Amino acid sequence: MNLTSPPAPAPATDTHCPYCSLQCGMRLGRGTGASGAEVLERPDFPVNRGALCGKGRTAPALLARDVRLTGPLLRDRPGGPLRSAGWAEALDRVAAGLARTRAEHGADAVGVFGGGGLTNEKAYLLGKFARVVLGTANIDYNGRFCMSSAAAAHRRAFGLDRGLPFPLADIPHTGCLILVGGNPAETMPPAVRYFRELRENGGTLIVVDPRRTRTAELADLHLQPRPGGDLALALGLLHLVIAEGLVDKDFVAERTTGFEAAREAAMAHWPDRVERITGVPAHQLREAARLFGGAGTGMVLTARGPEQQSKGTDTVGAWINLCLATGKAGRPYSGYGCLTGQGNGQGGREHGQKADQLPGYRSIEDPAARAHVASVWGVPADSLPGAGKSAYELLDGLGRPDGVRALLLAGSNPAVSAPNAGHVTERLRALDLLVVADMVLSETARLADVVLPVTQWAEEDGTTTNLEGRVILRRRAFDPPEGVRSELWLLHELAARLGVTGGFPTDAEEAFDELRRASAGGDADYAGISYRRIAAEDGVFWPCPAEDHPGTRRLFLDRFATPDGRARFAAVTHRPAGEEPDDAYPLYLTTGRVLAQYQSGAQTRRVAELNAAAPGPFVELHPRLAERLGIADGEPVAVTSRRGRAVAAARITDAIRADTVFMPFHWPGAGRANSLTNPALDPVSRMPEFKLCAVRVERVVTDRDEVAS
Fold it and tell me: What cofactor does this chain's UniProt record say it requires (predicted)?
């Protein structure tokens, strides 16, 4: 009889999913697969309560050596192949190239482009590196393409921007929720339970989307406007709320300013006019206005649909107006919020990746903000550069005489994800030096002169900030491969080679403690947040100015963050999109995500289970349109805009408007949706108009057609 006990299993590590802004809690244990890791439920984490989508469950697949970068790569001549190299050679090449470009063309000829998936510590030190070591104003990040319009509108109305001003747990308790241009059933599935619970509790869900998505199928009322109609729709609903006596006059008088100008603008958007602009029947507009205006509490949540437009800031402002007019802001179970996309889209801009911001969500143009951050960094305030170019403007200028000529890019794949991606790819090729830090050989990394392999979420400590403003802690569960380094180490080594020998810690907690000091007193104040508190409290909500402060789960209950404490209406009016259909390009194109893929697909396309579920691009079109064009389901079709052409299989469905086609944007090559999209920019947020452009659709002639003829 064998009395020997089996060995105890290795303890699992509490951490978080590397993908979307929910930052779902999970546990990582030892597994038997190629990655050596296994995802376990973490039911005590309040955001997802143990639930995970397929992306989260399969995230460890990317830890396997055969799908990732495990050593630096160098290109010895333009157009030549990438070859393996050691870290010393690679970093020497990068430092020499950055120094040479700066010496020959000036500091602003060197640029940095970051990502919304980087931890707060990495985002913070990347911004510091750009401004202190390189001295460049030209740093921005792909989060500019995420929620910058919502952020601009949020700050304009409330004086402060946090994705959600309340926790997700409040959603089931509101009376009526309007979700505009979001599809969480596919983009953040664990959040869907909150919308289901809302309806189970007797609340009403209204979804605004040109497509009948999986989320729209859950709604009590689905409004299906033309792409670009969201601004007119919001104005039309405010018109009806006013006309039907549903304005909360006491709230407007006591807690807001600017109502009369907003009212005047809205009254020009009567139901019949809005129906003509949007295609939404007037009777549905009236129903939506009565449901929302008559509810005791209510929320409006926007996502990329209304935000990724050349009028995105005004569009979000119009939806905020609806909340303010009905008294559904700054009160329990009410308010406006934005469904952030990327895992750290919130924290990534709060702490210095964005061209116009310093840590703590401070303006880089504010002398007091500059003085505070400079004192933490130990540099003169006047040595800090001013605001640089926004993301698309930075990319558009790459390789030009007055643009960035050497670019350090971390955690982003603009060759697939940027608007007008064919043009952006040309600009990337025009650089004197392109350095990419990534964990996989993305399409952008394939263009680089130097590729630096970096650690993943399971191999490092670090914080992110989810869509609620909850700062959470990822913990290191596994050692990275021998040839892989953290971006923190990379920045430390580059700074030293460029003459700055201090201020770039390689320890994440040390970097976070410096971030806390730099953010202290700012809008996004993390001074009272520590690794210890985050672990003990399942995350801490900012602002949290002191260690004895509980964190701020709900914003604006007493006052808004404006100088007078009042929320501000926006006097906005409908205007056309940057590009509307015409005879040559008679259809709208809108883009988005699918359940099994994420962002540019650089990670998820390497996971067999996810790739099997969503193996390639497609073009969604209505049966009437397909019949008129002679297109059968599954046939290849070409979608052409003024910027490019994409080819993918037709997917015929009555879930989309007959004047609109849809493409997901996760794939490169012939089916790259962003070859088509319009880089027209919002004048305030500098957000490109991803969500609509004018296209034509044509059946692709195949070999079978040639034989038949």
Answer: Mo-bis(molybdopterin guanine dinucleotide); [4Fe-4S] cluster
